[in-house]
Amino acid sequence: MKNALKIVLCGISLSVMSSCATHSAYTGNLKSQNTQVILSQDNFKIGERIEGKANATYVFGIGGLSKKSLVETARTNMFQNANLQGSPKALVNETFSTKTSFFLLFWKHQVNVSADVVEFTK
Question: Cα separation of 111 and 53, whole Å?
Answer without folding.
Answer: 6
